[in-house]
Amino acid sequence: VAHIPGALLFDLDGIADRTINLPHMLPSEEAFGAAVSALGIENKDGVVVYDGKGLFSAARVWWMFRVFGHDRVWVLDGGLPKWRASGYDVESSASSDAILKASAATEAIEKVYQGQSVGPIKFQTKFQPDLVWTLDQVKKNIDERTYQHIDARSKARFDGLTPEPRKGIKSGHLLDSSQALLSADELKKRFDQDGISLDQPVVTSCGTGVTACILALGLRRLGKTDVAVYDGSWTEWGAHADTPVATSAT
User: Fold this and answer.
1) Alpha carbons 73 and 44: distance in angstroms, whole number
2) Annotated catalytic, 213?
3) Element holding 229 (H helix, E strand)
4) Contact 210/188 with Cβ under 8 angstroms?
5) Cα separation of 225 and 219, whole Å?
6) Other CB atoms closer than 10 Å to residue 241's CB: what's the count?
7) Among 14, 119, 144, 160, which is disulfide-ready with 247 (CB 3.0 to 4.6 Å)?
8) How many helices (H) and strands (E) does the chain have?
9) Burial of 107 (0-12, 13-18, 19+ CB in 10 A)
């Protein structure tokens, strides 16, 4: 797969929590710090993230860095497709340095979850709990309605009309729905149309916690920096027999 020259590989499924049976969940502080350090990233560094679809998993990586206290992180607008369309160079094979660092990151996070020592740690984390939500927080918010809850899944999945792509997951939605990522003016228009107030707190979710980060990124474009993401999202919520759901028929 082609990539921008000099880019590092951030394995979203590899740099993840190894203690829970959910895809690419947020790793521990120690695990994230060890993996990022193995990639050669330090706190003084600025980080630009991109992906091959234009805007998808890059938003999740952007959010992960922010959760662990690194604000010097940006998403490349349009990602690799726009880069290539603009005539810039790409590489078709990874450099030995990138391969070694990606392998070292995987090894580092495995060691952390196995209780083994790793080092040296050059990236110090500072966990920002307000940016990540748990299932219990979502449950509480259904009763209290303190936060506006925006669901980034497709309307058919949101309404419970289309089966979830993962077996054993109930169909339906949590609370609210919207779309992203467009220009600031168009984003503002979409949020206004869906009754989302930028003056009120927001939590986002989706299927596995990836697209929800695009919503958080879109809201960041509008100046809202305190958006929380429900990490487990519908994959966690829909797998529990005791979690309430709503469909278009309820």
Assistant:
1) 11
2) no
3) strand 228-230
4) no
5) 7
6) 5
7) 160
8) 9, 6
9) middle
Catalytic residue chosen out of the listed positions 118, 206, 213, 239? 206
Residue 35: which residues within 8 A CB-CB, separation 6 or more? Answer: 14, 15, 27, 105, 106, 108, 109
Q: What pLDDT score does 165 carry?
A: 44
Please state the φ and ψ torsions of residue 57, each to the nearest 5 degrees: -70, -20
Q: What is the CA radius of gyration of the chain?
A: 19
pLDDT along the chain (250 residues), means of 10: 91 95 94 98 98 90 98 92 92 87 95 94 97 96 94 57 42 31 81 91 93 91 95 90 70
Give the residue carrying structure tokens 């880069």: 83
Alpha-carbon distance of 195 to 110, in angstroms, equals 44
Query: Using a CB cutoff of 8 Å and minimum separation of 24, what contacts does 180-189 make?
Result: 180/152, 180/214, 180/215, 180/217, 180/218, 180/219, 181/55, 181/59, 181/214, 181/217, 181/218, 181/221, 182/218, 184/221, 184/222, 187/218, 187/219, 187/221, 187/222, 188/222
Burial state string for 167-179 with b = 16 or more CB within 10 A and e = fewer than 16: eebbbbbbbbbbb
Give the pLDDT confidence score for residue 153 in this predicted structure. 62
Q: Which helix (H) or strand (E) holds 48?
A: strand 47-49
3-state secondary structure of 205: strand
Q: What is the mean pLDDT of the chain?
A: 86
pTM of the model: 0.87
Measure the CA–CA gap between 207 and 108, rounded to whole angstroms. Answer: 28
**Residue 217 identity (one-letter amino acid):** L
